[in-house]
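Thread: VLIG-type G domain-containing protein, structure

OP (GT): Posting the sequence first so everyone is looking at the same thing. Length is 1112 residues per the record. Can we get the structure tokens written out before standup tomorrow? I want them in the notebook alongside the other entries.
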Amino acid sequence: METGEDAQPSAGVDSNVGSEFAPVPNLFCLMKLVREMQCEMEVVKPVLDELEVMRLCRGFGMMSSVNPKDFNFDILHAREFDEDFTRFLRYELLESSCPGDVKLKGLFGKQAQVSDALVSMKACCTETVASLTAANEGVYIKKMDAECSETQNNEDTCTGLVVFSWIRDELFEPEKLRDTPAFILRFLTGLAPDIICCTTREDLEQIKTSMVDSDEQEDDELSSYSVSFHIEKQEDQPDCTECVRMASVDLEALAGDCTGICLLKGSYPAIACTRTMQSAIRTEQVRQTFHSNMQLTFAAWLKEESQHYRIGLSGSIARCVKLCQNILKEFDMLPEDQVNALRCAHEKQQQEKYDEATKKLKDTIAKQRKMVDQVSGELFRLRPRETPSEESDSSLQAASAAYDAFRKWLTSFCTWPLDRKLELILDTPTRLRGIETALYELYSCGQDGQLSSLLEMCATSSKADLLKNINKRCKGKKQHLASGKKDEDGGEQTATWEAFLEKTAQPLNALRTKWWVAVESSLAAAQDAELKKLKCDKKRDNTEWYEREKVIMQNKLDELRKTLLSTDGLLLTVNAHTRGRGVVHCDGSREVHAASTAFLDIVKLDANDREGNLEHAARRQEALGRLMLRPDERHVAMFTVKVRSAVQVCAGKERMCVKFIYFPPSNDSRHSSRASERTIRTFGRTPSLCDYDARNRMMTCLSKDSVAIFKFDEAFKNMERIKEIDLGVRSTLTELPFTDILLQDSTVYVTDSSGFSQGIDIHNDQTSNVLSVHAGPETNAANSRMFELADNLAVGAVSFVPDDDGAFEGEVECISRDDHRHLPALPLGVKFLTDRVSVQCVDDRVFVLDPLAQKVYVFSIQVTVRSDSYRMRQSNGGDSKHSEETSRTECMRKRHWLYTFYHVFEKFPVRGLLDPTAPTPVSIAISSSEAGDGGFVLENYHDFLSLLMSDLMALNKPLHGLDLTKGLTVLRSLRGMDMKSSTLKAFFLTLVTFLPIQICRAEGNALTVLHDGMDQSLDEAEVEIQTWGAADIAESIRFGVLSPLLCAWCGRCVVITSMGKQSTGKSYFLNHLTGSSFAIAGNRCTDGAWMSLRVMHDVLLVVLDFRGSWVV
């Protein structure tokens, strides 16, 4: 784990996540280094790349249900393959059904040498190596082609894997070897114990030098059995105060109405200029809602307001007819007579039109009924086919034509289709014409009993069904018809036409009656349809009348609007619209005479020294916006927070109010944007002084003889009272009132009128001695407010001493926080025109604002507080010079990057106490292109590793037969080298369970659950997050690749953890007990909980490690 300067990203790399790795065929990024901000420090954290692990599994033919092309999309998340990966872990990996072996070789060294080794052993081509940039830090695996594997090892053709590290060369500095390189090498030896160290000529020279110096040392380990020690005091750094850089920036010309200007303290430096806006006519918003049950209606309110204002009434009110009528009625301008006359004329005209149309409809219906009645006789008269008559045919054609015209008229009047049964009945005359011959033939054959039923079917069946029924009944009588003809030729005819007519008269009359009822029904339907149409026309005429009435109302409303707007006075613009149940919502604006009002113009100073040019950085100024000050409130203090926000403390009406101020970005540089404010909390006491600690988001307020400490949440939506200190009890200062207050970490410093200060710890109420920042005896010097320096190790202030020429010289005076020792004073070297300057300190940069010179001076001040260290040395009679050379030689040997092997086995175990099997021994090969004697090179590296093993054995920890010198070889060329084999199951099981994952983070007195070991916090912009239930939160928690493994495990599970105070060896103990690989971080920048899984035969160990000072 890296922090501070060790964690600085390389050029062009994102400081949070680094550069993304683009997938390359047969090249897999197993572990990546992720940068995050934890506890306000940058931390480098190793994270297993789940998608790359799954892609590697798919490359070996596993997870067959997954398409390999799915891994080419960057938008995918590993959780989308959880089901497939869980099946692979359960049925292939954990159940010992993962077949095959794999050959492994590890590469460790700097990037240039590792890339040369990959090309030399034909694992990668030059283009593939070139695609890896310095920012793609991590551990990679290159899957070698089958041809290359066969060439390097002719015994079998199992796949070869080359595991290599890819980290920046800066991490191989001696002071950084114990952090990231040691963890990377631990990961490499866990996957591939056969390691090749890629060295250079310079490495060999450094090894040779250290070995020669080591041979010259005397072995005095057993020279004496008597040992004596002495303690030496060493001053690591002296007290020092110096100005590293200084710059000044000219402010814009101050306006004539500027009454005050000061610097703001907080997250970023800013300037607040207090100005006064002269009295003028201003506009304020008016919003009011009128309910139906209120005594004062909207119309009455409008009439009352018209007595005092010019009313600008919106013309859109005419859309609400009822509202418009009420307004006109209230102002006695409702045109009732005109509207009533228009209504009466319209109703009369409409009734006459309706009566005329109704009469016309009745006449048409009667005419059609009479016509159908006249032709009904012809339509239902049966005629013989044998004796046709021209007169009867013409009368039938005329009747049919008239009936067809009736049917067309009926269809045109009825807007909807008639009932099917009614249609069949109306078609009865047509079907009767088609079956009269067939009826006569049936009668002639003696089937007179079927005539009635067939005539009834004319009104209920179609013509096709009717003919089908007739043919069916005539089919059985064909033979009888033939014999009947013979009898007719021999005898007298049995049936006559007159008898047929007489037989069918009664059923024919019944059919005609049924048909006439259908005709009457269709006429009634046509009449109803036409009456409905007339009613629609009548309603349409009413719509037209409504429009005419609305025009009259609109004209009257326009006349009222002109009258209301023509009066004298301030303008009141009104717009209103109705809602449900008679609710009227009114909004608009009102002109008012506003008195003179004070406001603050806020200007942000961008002092981020990115390029080392402080003067250029200080000149960047941005006008954030304008904050209006209320006349009934007194401005107390303002502090900058976030990026474009501030916290204002004001007092009014015997209460204190804390507001969150946001300055929105503005595209118009000529006009300042209006700030939006939101009240965070109000209190009963009125403060006189306030201070703010931006690091901890804590604010302190001084009110008379008590100090209250508050803490904001991350979104600055809430603040809680942490503690209240009674200065009358805790402080011994007597010269009241208090003139200054400073909040520094957990200590509150208060200053009285005499200039003396005293610190009070907010946790244990411990009170310091009375102190004074100013060491000089000058009584006429003006002093600024106190500020913190040197990362809260010192407290300082600026004093201004008058000069002979009327100017003032500034000097920084400071004391150490621990023992209140005065540090060297620092003259600023600048003459100020006044002693009423504003001084603030932001990130060890002192900003001094001279309002008369209209300049801001920026001083980058570096304060060093003296620190002493004590060292216990062994006293002997030897030469001290020889002792110093020995120390130097040891330091030289331990500064080489190959000494990382020592840090690996010093921090991590060779074998955990609970491990069931012995690990594969680590073997080292040296890749060196040195053209000298190979034996000489081997001898130097062998001696180096021998001394390294001596250092390991001096730790008195079990090494389980570890010998890094065993099998040591020097390789001139990497072609054709041997690779040790391992089972695929052991390889993947080690890969999945090796890296621990951070499951939560402890920061800011809160425990934050991480997603897949990564920090996915929101931006500082205010976002309303949807409230989740407990089930949703539990479903969203995922522990990276460990979650599918937990789902796939079906056996017993044991949880192991350790609890204890900080720096008690919890991680070290868990690593040596279970064989886990928790990183040991003494600086405690990874506070939180970490989880690792270890498979022990049929038991799954869930190992939890808790880190940080919050663990008790």
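GT: Both are above now. Quick notes for whoever picks this up: The radius of gyration is 51 Å. The first strand starts at residue 27 and ends at 38.
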